[in-house]
């Protein structure tokens, strides 16, 4: 049962602005109707009789938002990153597409999705944008499982009417009709788990399908997620399929699925040309889902996150399970910082031994994983007054050394070293869902 009024006691860490952390030591956060009412060094007299969750020796951080992951791929996480046998074909042919086709079997889908949701609960993530498969019943099942556990999420029934394998390929008419039926199935069914239109990417969706999805997005005000400029070969393929484009992003924008009319989350965005970058900076409902570990695994490159942020483009972080091997956004956060360092070292530095570093700071990466991605839901991802309370309680006792450390150092160590053993409790929308 959700309490309408309570307090958390502990040391709070958050990033209202990306430039720096704010730490509130040994304080009380009051939650009213699921939102932060305020943080106080002492519990105000007006609240002296409310329930207090006492985490006095713990660090409390905002829940994190995974802006791009493929739930059906969780089953084969940790394999396929080093395909060297030429007889195996591509990663998609060997793993992604055959595994996703299994979700036509609802019994298999229940087992696999239950494991994914159970394990996702044991992370610092409270919200996400999730790809399911083309299968309507299995997609609805995933939404039910997420809602039952208290998650807030956008979930997409994937659309593919070309360039897939038998058993994972829809006709154009089927893809449209199944999408409409799925939207009807889940309309007003779940409080915090919502539908998200999901054309897998331009090569998997015909022009007719994209036109229909764009119309549905506008008519029903449904946000969109897809992939953009992940690899150079992908970009060339898009140009072959749609000659005359000035940039890959136009393949979505011409169908109103690039942040012009409804929110759109585009994963990767590693190689924007000048046209695409300009278009992205003008589409204020567009968000980049930066997936550094996945980009490393595919040798795809590094997204220019600092450039996006400077131009005012919204950016969040994504695990891209199973393009990566982890659901942990703590690990993805650390990888985002490393990716930024690598990009600077091999491009901007230009062998200058005295060059000033222009890399993603830890506070900026933390911001992307919390308030940055949380912007898709509104006031989420921070402990500012009025924000929805998503919070994760971390116990650092397993990792402590024998020296006094600053709060920054303590949080840094948790980001780099902690795992599910250190998660004490989790709150989503002001409701305790774990611990």
Mean pLDDT: 96
How many separate domains?
2
- So, CATH architecture of the largest domain? Alpha-Beta Barrel
- Outline, from the CA principal axes? globular
Tell me the Rg in angstroms.
Answer: 22 Å
Please give the structural blueprint.
Elements: E1 5-14, E2 22-32, E3 35-40, E4 51-62, E5 64-70, H1 91-101, H2 106-121, E6 125-131, H3 136-148, E7 152-156, E8 158-159, H4 172-186, E9 193-195, E10 198-199, H5 207-220, E11 224-228, H6 232-241, H7 250-253, E12 264-268, H8 274-282, E13 286-290, H9 292-297, H10 305-310, E14 314-317, H11 329-348, H12 362-374, E15 391-394, H13 407-417, E16 423-428, E17 431-434
Parallel strand pairs: 1-4, 5-6, 6-7, 7-9, 8-10, 11-12, 12-13, 13-14
Antiparallel strand pairs: 1-2, 2-3, 4-15, 15-16, 16-17
Helix pairs in contact: 2-3, 3-4, 4-5, 11-12
Structure description:
The chain folds into two domains: 5-63 and 382-434, Urease, subunit C, domain 1 (Roll); 64-377, Metal-dependent hydrolases (TIM Barrel, Alpha-Beta Barrel), CATH 3.20.20. The protein is α/β, with parallel strands linked by helices. β1 (5-14) and β2 (22-32) form a beta hairpin. It has helices spanning 91-101, 106-121, 136-148, 172-186, 207-220, 232-241, 250-253, 274-282, 292-297, 305-310, 329-348, 362-374, 407-417, and strands at 5-14, 22-32, 35-40, 51-62, 64-70, 125-131, 152-156, 158-159, 193-195, 198-199, 224-228, 264-268, 286-290, 314-317, 391-394, 423-428, 431-434. The chain has a seven-stranded mixed β-sheet. The chain has a four-stranded parallel β-sheet with strand order 5-6-7-9. It has a four-stranded parallel β-sheet with strand order 11-12-13-14. It is built from 13 helices and 17 strands.
């Amino acid at each position: 049962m959700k309490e309408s009024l309570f307090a958390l006691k502990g040391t709070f860490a958050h990033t209202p602005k990306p430039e720096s952390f704010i730490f509130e030591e040994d304080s009380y956060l009051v939650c009213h109707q699921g939102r932060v009412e305020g943080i106080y060094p002492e519990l105000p007299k007006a609240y002296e009789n409310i329930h207090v969750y006492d985490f006095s020796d713990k660090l409390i951080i905002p829940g994190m938002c995974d802006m791009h992951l493929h739930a059906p791929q969780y089953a084969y996480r940790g394999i396929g990153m080093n395909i060297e046998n030429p007889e195996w074909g591509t990663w998609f042919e060997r793993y992604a597409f055959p595994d996703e086709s299994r979700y036509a079997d609802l019994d298999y889908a229940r087992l696999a999705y239950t494991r994914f949701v159970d394990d996702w609960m044991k992370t610092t993530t409270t919200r996400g944008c999730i790809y399911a498969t083309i299968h309507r019943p299995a997609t609805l099942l995933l939404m039910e499982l997420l809602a039952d556990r208290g998650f807030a999420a956008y979930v997409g029934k994937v659309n593919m009417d070309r360039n897939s394998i038998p058993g994972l390929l829809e006709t154009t008419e089927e893809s449209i009709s199944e999408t409409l039926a799925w939207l009807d199935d889940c309309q007003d069914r779940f409080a915090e788990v919502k539908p998200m239109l999901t054309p897998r990417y331009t090569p998997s969706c015909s022009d007719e399908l994209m036109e229909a999805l764009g119309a549905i997005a506008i008519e029903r005000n449904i946000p969109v997620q897809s992939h953009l400029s992940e690899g150079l070969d992908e970009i060339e393929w898009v140009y072959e399929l749609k000659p005359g484009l000035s940039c890959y992003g136009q393949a979505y924008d011409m169908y109103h699925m690039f942040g012009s009319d409804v929110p759109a989350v585009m994963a990767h965005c590693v190689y924007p040309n000048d046209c695409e970058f300009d278009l992205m900076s003008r589409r204020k409902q567009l968000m980049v889902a930066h997936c550094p570990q996945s980009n490393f695994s595919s040798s795809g490159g590094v997204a220019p996150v600092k450039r996006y942020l400077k131009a005012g483009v919204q950016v969040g972080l994504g695990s891209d399970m199973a393009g990566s091997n982890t659901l942990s956004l703590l690990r993805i956060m650390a990888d985002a910082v490393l990716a930024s360092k690598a990009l600077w070292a091999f491009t901007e530095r230009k062998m200058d031994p005295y060059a000033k570093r222009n890399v993603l700071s830890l506070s900026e990466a933390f911001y992307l994983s919390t308030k940055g991605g949380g912007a898709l839901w509104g006031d989420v991802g921070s402990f500012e007054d009025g924000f929805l309370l998503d919070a994760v309680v971390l116990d650092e006792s397993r990792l402590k050394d024998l020296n006094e450390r600053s709060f920054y150092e303590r949080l840094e160590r948790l980001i780099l070293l902690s795992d599910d053993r250190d998660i004490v409790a989790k709150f989503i929308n002001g409701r305790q869902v774990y611990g």
